[in-house]
Amino acid sequence: MHLMQPVESSSIAFIGGGSMARALIAGLLRQGVPARQISVGEPSADARAALQRECGINVHADNAAAAAGAELVVLAVKPQQASAALQALQSVLRARAPVLLSIAAGLRIADLARACPPGIAIVRAMPNRPALVGAGVTGLYAQREASAAQRQLAERVAAASGRALWLRSEAELDIVTALSGSGPAYFFLLAEQMAQAAEALGLEHHTAELLASDTLYGAGLLAHHGMPLAEQRAAVTSRGGTTEAALQVLQQGGFDALVARALQAGAARSAQLADMLGSEPPGSMSGSH
Question: Is pLDDT at 98 greater than 90 in this prediction?
Answer without folding.
Answer: yes
